[in-house]
């Protein structure tokens, strides 16, 4: 894929920027907590960042589709950098809580949707072919790498240097990466120049896109519930420090599975997605029976390692369901769907774990995740058309 004309001009820069974005949310937490000494204020600032990102991101994506990546994102990135630096300074100098939360909200609202920008460029340089599935698999694996490395880098810098150091590092990576990405003009998609509808482009108001939105919301429920429960499991077994390595192990397996899926091109997207969603749901429930930490490494490695085999086929179906003129907005709405799921599941599962223990947490996560295979089965008549289009395109190319 990297031998594709134009790919090396934008993809490495997108990887750098994405690492910065992957660091940002946790970096906000460290910066505010270090400056105020309060996890409550740090949590409020982090929540403001996440909510603003989920709410405003699709509108930024809509502007990108209409006016182009360079014109829109060059402005929003400047705001992101200014807000994040202001938050670092404010945390260090003891600014009022409302100012820190406000700056965190601005940073979240203007955080660049790097994954959507990069995927749109892949769609332009490779076209609608089987190679796009490989490109999306590469994107998915890169996402696993950045969200594996990013939190570790933030924690290391903020804990060993100064609390706001991780945030400054994230800003630097975003600035450098986006500068390189936005100057790669040849791969930038042509802006549509128009948009229909008020908050959501009418071209996205379809049953196909709605089904994918709900499916990604269900994956967000999984993403929100599992980290809380794995952490509770580790603490209950006197191994709290191993919660991170348990999650990291599953990310490595997921990364590998995504690369294999993209390289082999085997399996119809909807079929793979449905089958693996059933496996993840049952697997999450069975984790409630895990007796010790070594078994959890294996069990959650297998369950969490399947994530890429849902996200990548979903991305393939999404590019079939949406016109290129609204693709960036579509991807940002999908990201917001996942964020909504996380926002619902994390506190709910956290309450159940606090009240009834980690085993109930896994059962609750499984029950929430069951919405995914149920959605895919109920909407199969709608999504099967997208799968047929994807397979037909692959055969033709």
Compose a concise summary of this entry.
Helix 2 (39-67) packs antiparallel against helix 13 (327-356), helix 6 (130-160) packs antiparallel against helix 9 and helix 12 (308-321) crosses helix 16.
Count structural domains. Answer: 2
Radius of gyration computed on alpha carbons: 20 Å
- What's the CATH first level of the largest domain? Mainly Alpha
Q: Per the principal axes of the C-alpha atoms, what is the gross shape?
A: globular
CATH second-level architecture of the largest domain? Up-down Bundle
CATH superfamily of the largest domain: MFS general substrate transporter like domains
Total count of strands: 0
Structural class: mainly alpha
CATH topology name of the largest domain, in short, is Growth Hormone, Chain: A
* Main beta sheet: none
Low-confidence stretches: 393-397
SSE series: HHHHHHHHHHHHHHHH
Q: Number of helix segments?
A: 16
Instruction: Quote the distance from N terminus to C terminus.
Output: 15 Å
Task: Give the mean pLDDT.
Answer: 87
Beta-strand content bin:
under 5%
Share of helical residues: over 70%
Could you characterize the architecture of this molecule?
This protein has helices at 7-36, 39-67, 69-93, 97-110, 114-126, 130-160, 165-182, 207-236, 243-264, 269-286, 293-304, 308-321, 327-356, 358-369, 371-378, 380-396. With 397 residues, the protein is mostly helical. It folds into two domains: 6-190, MFS general substrate transporter like domains (Growth Hormone, Chain: A), CATH 1.20.1250; 199-397, MFS general substrate transporter like domains (Growth Hormone, Chain: A, Up-down Bundle), CATH 1.20.1250.20. α8 runs parallel beside α13. It is globular. The two termini are 15 Å apart. The model is unreliable at 393-397 (pLDDT under 50). The chain crosses the membrane at residues 72-92, 98-120, 167-188, 209-236, 242-263, 270-291, 297-318, 330-352, 358-378. One of its GO terms (molecular function) is transmembrane transporter activity. Keywords: Membrane, Transmembrane, Transmembrane helix.
């Amino acid at each position: 894929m990297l031998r594709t004309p134009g790919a090396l001009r934008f993809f490495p820069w997108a990887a750098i920027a994405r690492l910065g974005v992957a660091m940002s949310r946790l970096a906000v937490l460290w910066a505010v907590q270090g400056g105020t000494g309060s996890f409550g204020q740090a949590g409020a600032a982090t929540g403001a960042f996440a909510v603003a990102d989920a709410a405003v991101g699709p509108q930024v994506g809509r502007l990108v589709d209409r006016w182009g990546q360079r014109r829109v994102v060059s402005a929003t990135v400047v705001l992101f950098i200014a807000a994040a630096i202001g938050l670092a300074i404010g945390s260090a100098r003891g600014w009022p809580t409302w100012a820190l939360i406000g700056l965190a909200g601005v940073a979240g609202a203007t955080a660049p949707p790097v994954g959507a920008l990069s995927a749109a460029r892949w769609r332009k340089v490779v076209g609608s072919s089987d190679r796009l599935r490989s490109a999306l698999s590469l994107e998915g694996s890169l996402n696993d790498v950045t969200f594996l490395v990013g939190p570790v880098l933030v924690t290391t810098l903020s804990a060993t240097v100064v609390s706001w150091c991780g945030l400054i590092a994230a800003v630097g990576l975003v600035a450098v990466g986006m500068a390189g990405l936005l100057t790669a003009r040849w791969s930038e998609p042509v802006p549509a120049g128009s948009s229909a509808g008020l908050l959501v482009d009418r071209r996205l108001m379809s049953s196909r896109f709605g089904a994918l939105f709900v499916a990604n919301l269900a994956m967000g429920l999984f993403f929100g519930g599992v980290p809380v429960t794995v952490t509770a499991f580790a603490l209950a077994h006197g191994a709290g420090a191993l919660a991170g390595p348990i999650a990291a192990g599953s990310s490595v397996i997921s990364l590998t599975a995504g690369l294999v899926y993209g390289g082999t091109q085997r399996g119809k997207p909807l079929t793979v997605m449905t089958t693996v969603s059933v496996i993840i749901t049952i697997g999450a429930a069975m984790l409630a029976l895990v007796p010790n930490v070594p078994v959890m490494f294996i069990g959650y490695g297998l369950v969490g390692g399947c994530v890429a085999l849902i996200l990548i086929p979903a991305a393939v179906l999404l590019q079939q369901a949406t016109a290129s003129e609204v693709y960036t907005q579509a991807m940002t709405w999908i990201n917001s769907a996942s964020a909504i799921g996380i926002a619902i599941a994390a506190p709910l599962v956290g309450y159940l774990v606090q009240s009834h223990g980690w085993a109930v947490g896994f059962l609750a996560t499984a029950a929430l995740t069951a919405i995914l295979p149920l959605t895919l089965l109920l909407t199969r008549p709608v999504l099967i058309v997208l799968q047929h289009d994807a397979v037909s395109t692959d055969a033709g190319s």
